[in-house]
Amino acid sequence: MIGGVSGDMLLGAMVAVGLDLDELQAELDKFPDRGFRLEKSLVNRGGLEATLVDVVLDDDGSRKRRWDNFYSSIASSSLQDSDKRGIKRIFDVLAEAEASAHGGEAGTTHLHELGTVDTLVDVASTVIGMRLLGVEKIHASAFPVGTGSSSSSHGSMGATSIATAAIYKASGAPVRAGGKQPIGEAVTPTGAAIVASLAEFFPVEFNADRIGYGAGQRNPEGHANVVGLWIGEGRSQWGRGGPGRRRPEVMELETNIDDSTGEVLGYVHEQLMELGCLDVWFTPIQMKKNRPATMLSVLVKRDLVDAAAELILRETSTLGVRRRPVRRYEAERQIITVDTSLGKVPVKLKRIGDTIAQAAPEYEACREIARETGLPIAEVMRIVVNEATMRGSPWSG
Predict the structure, then answer these.
(1) Predicted local confidence at residue 358, as pLDDT
(2) H or E stretch including 326?
(3) At the topology level of CATH, where does 245-330 sit?
(4) Domain range 332-390, CATH architecture
(5) CA 83 centroid distance within chain
(6) What pTM value is reported for the model?
(7) What are the extents of the domains in the chain?
(8) In this predicted model, what pLDDT tens digit does every residue of 61-82 receive, in sequence order?
(9) pLDDT digits (tens, 9 = 90+) for 115-167
C-alpha cells in the first residue's frame, strides 16, 4: 500500500494486471442494482503509470441506500455462493466499524459517503476480480496511517477516519506510523474493510510475473497515490526435490535460567506445549561466574507469542525473555496405515518435493504390539518397515 488503499484503487490495480472490465461487468450485472458504469484511463501518480477506474453514477446510482438494501442486493444476486459470502463478510466489517464509530447497532447507522451504489461496486469488484484473476491468496503490507487531516460529512478529522481506525482495531491489522507518510486520508473505510477481510499480513516469498498500480483520485506532489498489486506463484517449496516447504514466519522465544529446578522446568515445558507452541527445548549453558544454567527456547506462532512469554515469566525465575522472528523449512508429512503380519500399523511418511525421504512406524502402535507379543520394540519397527517395503508400500519406490 504505497499511497494507501481504497475500493477504486484496488479496482484499478486489478485492471492494470489484466482484469477484463467487460468480464467484470458481466458479473456485476448479476446484481439487481443499476445506475453505474465503469470508465478506465491511464494516469501518472508520481513516477508511476497507474490505472484509474471511475465508477460513474447516474441518478439511480447516486440514490442513497441503507445497509439492508445492500444486504438484500447481495442475497438476491445470481453470483456464485463464494462471492456472496466474501462480499457479505466485507459489508459486515464495514457495518461493525460504522457502528463502533458512530454508536448504535451494526447495520443501523447512517451510511453517509458509503450509501451509494459505488460502495457495492467497489467491494464486489474486488472479490469477483480476484477470482477472475485466479488469485488464491492475498498478502498485504501494513496500512499507512497518513498525516494531516481529512474531511467528511462529519466534519474535519485526522487522516485516519474513526471508522477506518475501528477496522484496524477489530481486525488486528498492522499499521505503519513511521517513515514517509501519505498526506490526508490514505485509507478509506471501504479499502480498509476489503484488505482486512481478504488479506494476510505476514511476509511472503513469490515469483512475480504481473505488476500493476491502481490510482487514487488525488494526485498530490508529495507521494505516489497508488496501491500496487503484484501477482505471481507462491514459493511454497524450493523446486522439485528441494529442501521442503518454506513456512510463514514464526517467533522464537529464548531465556537463560540459572535458579529454577528441574521439576519447574519440566512443568513449564508441559504447559507451553499444551498452550500450542510448536516446539520447546532446553540447552545447557554457563552464565556469569561459570554457573551451570539452562537456556529455554520456544518456537511459537505469532498469535500465541505474548501468552507464551507471559507463561515463562510467571512460572520461572527469569526476569526477561528474548524474541525474534524466524523462518523454517518443513518437509511434508503424511500418515498411512500398513497391513503387516503384526497387524495394521500407522506409518509416518516424510516427503521432500515428490520424493518420500523417510518412513517411520508410529511409536505408540509399535509399543502396544511389543507389549502384546513380547518382542523388542526395535524388532517390531524393523518388521513393519521390511514387510511394508516388500509389499510395495508407497515409499518402496
Answers:
(1) 81
(2) strand 322-326
(3) Alpha-Beta Plaits (3.30.70)
(4) Roll (3.10)
(5) 19
(6) 0.61
(7) 7-234, 245-330, 332-390
(8) 889 888 999 999 999 999 999 9
(9) 789 999 999 999 999 999 999 889 999 999 888 766 655 556 667 888 899 99
